[in-house]
Each structure stands twice: as C-alpha cells, then as structure tokens.
Amino acid sequence: MGQARQEQLGETEAGVAAGRRQRHRSPGRPRDPAAEGRILDAAIEEYLETGAAGFTIDGVARRAGVGKSTVYLRWSDKNALIVDSMLARSAAIEHVDTGSLRDDLVALAGNLLRFLLDPVGFATFRITVDAVASQTRQQVATELAARHRSAAARVFDRARERGELLDPAAVQLVAECLYGAVTVKVISHGLADGVPGDDALAASCVATVDLLLPLLRRSPAG
C-alpha cells in the first residue's frame, strides 16, 4: 500500500475516532441568559456589604451563583463591572419626556431623588464618592457623571427643538445645580427615616426647578 493511501486511511480513522468521542462527550453546560442580570445585581449588593476595600470578583461570583470565569467573560476587571452595575441600576432615571422643560427637569430631579433615597441607589452614590477619592476608580465617577450630563442635555435639546430660548451659558450650570441640590437633599435626609411621600418629593423638586428656571430663561445679553 502506497504512503499516500496509508496517510488517507489514517486521517479517515482519526476522523471516525474523533466523531465517536464527540458523540459520547457530555454536552457542555448551556449559557445562562439571566446570569448577566444576576451578576450586575450581585455587584451592587456586594459593594453595599464590603465597600471598596473588600469588593472582589470572587465575592460577586459567589453571590450571583456563577463561576468567576463567567464574570470575566463579560467584564475585564472589577471597575468595569462596577460601572455597568451602576448604569444598569440608574438607567430609568433618565427616561423623561413630558413635553415641557419645567416638567422634564422636575421629573429628572424626582427620579434621581427617589433612586438615591433607596438603599441600592444610595450604594451607587457611595461608589461614586469612593471613586473620586481613588485614582484607580476614576472611570466609575467619570462614566456616571457623563450619563447624568447626557440626560440633562437631552432635556435641553428637546426644549430648543420646541422653540424655547435658553441661555447657553447657563445650561451646564443649571444641570450641575439641579443634581447638586438633589445630592444635598439625600445627604441631609439620610436613609434612616425612609423615603418621603410622593407629594413631599414632588414639592421639593418643583421648588428647586422653579428657583433655577429663571437662569435658563435669561437672554444671553442679560
């Protein structure tokens, strides 16, 4: 038998053997489509319990009921995981479109205030403060600040599209003042007394927005 024929038979037999092994191999564990959500939730809960110093991928994986490799398949490091966890939890804050600049700003402030007065929401605030103090976690604070600026920018852009005149020099200042006022309210209130009623929250946000609106309405020349 020629050498070429022998090599062909060898390749055929190897292929048959490989196919036989494949048929008898146990099927791999299917990918869990809900794992990502559990991991994102577990990351916030882990941070609530351990803080920055004790936060680890191992701890998140155990809390989520997945292997550490499952976490690393989706996130390269714990900072990236923290950013995505915070953004996933806070995404609904920005979904406002009432058709009115004043009402949009009231809704934006109200959503943020309710979120931060919840223990999980307050954890995202805690993460942000920790991140500002840590050079290795600056990405966390930067990403969250960019998200809030983007949400406010969409509110102002829609107002301009409706023909409302806004002082461009005041837009960023008003957004910062609005978010700053909400943050101070959260710090002052704390979590011990629970979340205020809807009427109290709305009244607080309306008062803040009405204080800031004249700055936006002022003509550029004024």
Q: What this model shows, in words?
A:
With 222 residues, the chain is mostly helical. It has ten helices and no strands. The radius of gyration is 26 Å and the shape is elongated.
How many helix segments? 10
What is the average per-residue confidence, as pLDDT, rounded to a whole number?
A: 79
The proportion of residues in beta strands is under 5%
Low-confidence stretches: 3-29
| Corresponding CATH superfamily of the largest domain | Tetracycline Repressor, domain 2
Instruction: Give me the CATH architecture of the largest domain, please.
Output: Orthogonal Bundle
Quote the distance from N terminus to C terminus: 99 Å
| Computed Rg | 26 Å
SSE string, helices as H and strands as E? HHHHHHHHHH
- The CATH class of the largest domain is Mainly Alpha
Largest sheet: none
**Which bin fits the share of residues in helices?**
over 70%
Rough shape? elongated
* Number of E-type strands: 0
CATH topology of the largest domain: Tetracycline Repressor, domain 2
The count of domains is 2
Element layout with pairings:
Layout: H1 3-24, H2 35-54, H3 57-64, H4 68-74, H5 78-90, H6 101-116, H7 119-132, H8 138-161, H9 168-189, H10 198-217
